[in-house]
Amino acid sequence: MVEVIRRLYARRLRAGLVDATLPRHVAMVMDGNRRWARQMGFDDPSVGHRYGAAHLHEVAGWCAELGIRQITLFVASVDNVRKRGSAEVAHLMRLVEEVIAEPLRRPGSPWRLHVAGRTDVLPDSTRHALKLAEDGTRDRAGGFDLTVAIGYDGRTEIADAVRRLLHREAEAGATLTDVADRITADAIGAHLYTGGRPAPDLVIRTSGERRMSGFLLWQAVHSELYFCDVYWPGFREVDFLRALRTYATRTHAVRPSPR
């Protein structure tokens, strides 16, 4: 009965979004995997990572059905890779390879994969699996783009972007004074890990945490933020639709009235 009521509620939410303004690009912080596993009674909280990785594909499907063609997902920060226990990191990286990268390469998936982050901090096998998935999906038609932020930190991204810009200018023979005189936000933005792709319209974070944790610090400056109390593996379609409803309400409220 509960499931029937939930499906009816989801249908009602979808109907309310028919004429609404939907985000073109949704970014998500997939937080709360370990806490969800504890909540569900698993002895090993790292089991939550497997459920969370698999859930990524379901959420991507909801986006595709609604015509949301750009998704960015925060999978692991630099600190997640460098500072957590070696066994947990190895488990997480295997999931990235087997549950994220490999399924995206299969025929039938509409998504082109992009990777954002310091891939040099990843194990060789994970870096290789992601590269194969990027190369294997690059020429897919349809215009659906999924960016995985892994080995990611927003401050490091900005520093790396400035460094790349300076190197490019130096190779062209520019002096530091020349660069300082003409440097712009657009010039830095073009050298971000996500350079060339649109900024997110909506950022969703699960687990009840109310902070960005270094995610898309540059790109999300004008994004709507939505914080959801459920943990990522338990993030339901109705939770996603509520986030879209809130986004539509906010964007409608700030839209200039016609003259």
TrEMBL record:
Substrate binds at G32, N33, R34, R35, W36, H49, S77, V78, D79, R84, R205, R211, M212, S213. The active site is at D31, N80. InterPro entries: UPP_synth-like (IPR001441), UPP_synth-like_CS (IPR018520), UPP_synth-like_sf (IPR036424). Binds 2 magnesium ions per subunit. PROSITE patterns: UPP_SYNTHASE. Keywords: Magnesium, Metal-binding, Transferase. Its EC number is 2.5.1.-. It is an enzyme of class 2 (transferase). Mg(2+) binds at D31, E224. CDD domains: Cis_IPPS (cd00475). The keyword Metal-binding applies. Its cofactor is Mg(2+). The keyword Lyase does not apply. One of its GO terms (molecular function) is transferase activity. Homodimer. Belongs to the UPP synthase family. Z-FPP synthase subfamily. NCBIfam families: uppS. Catalyzes the condensation of isopentenyl diphosphate (IPP) with allylic pyrophosphates generating different type of terpenoids. This is Isoprenyl transferase. It comes from Micromonospora maritima.
